Every structure is written in structure tokens, then in C-alpha cells.
Amino acid sequence: MTAFLTLMRRELWEHRSLVWAPLVTALLLVLATFFGSRVGGLDFELGDQEAGFFSDLAATPVAQVQLFAVWMGSLLIPQLIVGLLVVFFYLLDTLYGERRDRSILFWKSLPISDASTVLSKFAVAALLMPVWVWGISLVSGVLIFLIVKFMVAGTALAPLGVWHGSAWLLVQATLLQNLLIAALWYAPIAAWLLVISVFAKRSPFFWAVLPPLLVAILEEVAFGSERILVFIGHRLSGYFQALQPGLMRSRDDETTLQTVAEAYQALSAAPLLASPSLWLGVLSAALLLALAIRLRRWRDDA
Questions:
Q1: 99-146, pLDDT tens digit by residue?
Q2: Given CA atoms 133, 81, 231, 205 in this order, what sign does their dihedral have?
Q3: CA distances from 286 to 114, 190, 211, 244, 280 (A)
Q4: Alpha-helix residue ranges (DSSP H) falling in the chain
Q5: Per DSSP, what are the bridge partners of residue 39?
Q6: Is 174:267 a contact under the CB 8 Å cutoff?
Q7: Which of 61, 137, 178, 209 has the most CB atoms in a 10 Å sphere around its CB?
């Protein structure tokens, strides 16, 4: 176990973007709140419609709690997207890079198995990064709230400055759960990227992207169908589609409070755990990881 943790720390030493990209994103969100004219996506300058909404909100404690929870949850989205992009390029480079600079020869000279090496890289992407993004989001969310509380004091937006401790704890537990579910959902993509990283002699990005697209194009040309393209799109966006009701979006004034209630009810990604697609993806990830481990045993040059 100590050796495995050391391998994970090695990944953070060699790939600093895993640490810094989510951190910088959180810092930019805090600065944008402090210097900007918007509060978590809501304008300070309110029209009659928005003023009516916040007037109703001030008189509805339950709606205040729900909006607070949805707002805190939505602050994770930018950091999650950045985290996914960073992990994508990290997985493509991590096994390819050690072959390119021949450091693989050093690591193979040590009593470290190929399985431990590959699985440590997967664990960094699928376990360590979600927890890191969640921790940063937790701290940045509190900072953004404190800034907003100061800025909206005495204004029509004052309901946004009310702290709801129990709701915040529930939201943080839900967000951590959502990130771990996202790791399960994207596990086959992560494992596929590791296979490409250990297999490709050149341009792992094109090896990862072009073959699936070419197969999808050939299917459309030969059979006039788009099943493969739909499958790829579902695997890439299915997690966010499951959370779509929980994302903030504008509606007519008379349905705004109902929209907040619907968004609050849809904050959790737990329903995805009942999806066969998720567990078939986990099984596919296990098979792809086994392939990546086997490939690394004889792949020592780029």
C-alpha cells in the first residue's frame, strides 16, 4: 500500500496541472465574484421580474434553502469541467510520456508491477482528482458566499446572503457523491485513454479520438444509422444530462420558484447508480485496464 501511495504522489509531482488547474479555476471564480457585477450567475441590477422573484423568495424560507443549495451546487460545475479536461490530457500523456523520455526503463528496473503503475494512474484520475476538486469547491464556495453576503446586504438580493448550515452540509455530501459517481460513469473513457497512452507511438490524442469517429462515420455511410455516434455522445454527456434539471437556467417568472424546487430535487446523481449503462461501463473499464497492463509489459518505447 505504501508503494502504491508513493506511485500516486509521483503522478502529482510529474503532472502539476492536476493540482493547479482546479485551484486556479476556483481562484478565478472567487475573483470574478469579488470584482464582477454578477453573483453566482445572478445580476445585481434587477428588473421587475427578478425583483418579484426575490420578493417571493424572502417570504418563502423553504425556497431560500432550495436556492441556496442549488447555487452552492452549481459553483462546482466550472471546476468539474476543468478537472475533466485536465484528467483527459493527463491520461493520454502519462504512459506515453514515460516511453517518450525512456523513464519507463528506470521504473521497470524497480520492483513495481505494471498493474500497480497503471492502477495508480487510474486511481489518481478516478479517485484523487474528484476528492481534490470537491475540497477546492467546498472552500471556494464558502469564500464566494461570504463575498456575496457582504455585497447583497441591504439589497433586494439579501435572501442570497442567508447561511443555511444543514443544507450546506447536505450539499457537500451530495457533491462528493456526485463526483464519485462521475468517476464511475467516465471510468471506461479513462481506461480507454490509458490503453491509447500505452499503445500509441505518436500523437495519442489522434489515436484516442479519430478511430471512434471514423467508425461512426463509416457506420453512417454504410448503414445510414448513427448508433455509434449516439453511444459516444451518451457516454460523454450522459452524466451532465442526468443532472440537467439541477443546473440553473432561467424560466418565466411564474414558474421560477417551481424551477428552483425541481433543481433542488435533481441535485443528486444517485439515480445513475440504477443505470445499466454505468455498470456496463465499469465492466468495460476493468477489461480495458487489464489490456493497458498487458500492453505495458512489452511496450517500452515511443
A1: 888 887 777 777 888 999 999 999 999 999 999 999 999 999 999 999
A2: negative
A3: 15, 11, 21, 28, 10
A4: 2-14, 17-35, 48-58, 61-74, 76-100, 103-109, 114-123, 129-152, 165-185, 187-199, 204-223, 227-242, 256-265, 276-296
A5: 42
A6: yes
A7: 137
